[in-house]
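Lab notebook: predicted structure, single chain.

Context: the supervisor wants predicted structures on file for every construct in the current expression panel, including those that have not yet been purified. This is the next one on the list. No modifications to the sequence; it matches the entry in the shared construct table.
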Amino acid sequence: MAALSPTSSSAEIVAHLRMLGSEDKRQGMRRYGIRIDRAVGVSHGVQREIAHRIKRNHERAFELWDSGIVEAQFIASLTADPRRFSVEDARTWAGDFDSWDIVDGVSDLFVDTPHWRELIAEFAADEREFVRRAGFAMIAWSAVHRKSEPDETLLGFLPLVEAHAADPRNFVWKAVSWALRSLGKRSELHHAAALRLAERLSASPDRTARRIGRESVRDLDGPKTMARLARIAARSSG
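Prediction complete. Output recorded below exactly as produced.
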């Protein structure tokens, strides 16, 4: 990895990824439900190390994305400048989504853009499986990362959760559940609202909504979540 630096070109980074690639790692990714068609077999940890070494370069990030190699695309998401990311840029990248891992990685970037709320609404309404997943992955990430957002902003995403809780597609319902549980862990206020929705969904006649509701109730009522909320409350009052 010593060969890479902030001045490395996208071609040099892609070549380095190919050199590090492992067929064993590619096949290991498959076991987690990750598509490996565009992968060379480099772990996320190594990808993050590369991103740290080469630093942010917005133009190069788009070159890395256009390589089509999924590891290069994840590094692109770590080295792009979210402040310079447009709605159209996000739509273009989302149009390339084909696996849950790249969706979840890039959604973390999208949450840091100025357009994050607009993108959540748009992507959640999109019928494409991985684009819709991106909308709910963004909700989950926003509950963690957008710490200064007013409560009503995050609580405003709960109707989206309810509206799409019946989508039975594997990579959608799991993201909807992730979003609901993440919102519920943000604070005691969010927990109460998310738990009410989870309980309502758990009684739904729809099988997928019911599954999301029951899973979320278990998590939100669990001892780890309650301990987390107690720590958050203690910090707030301290």
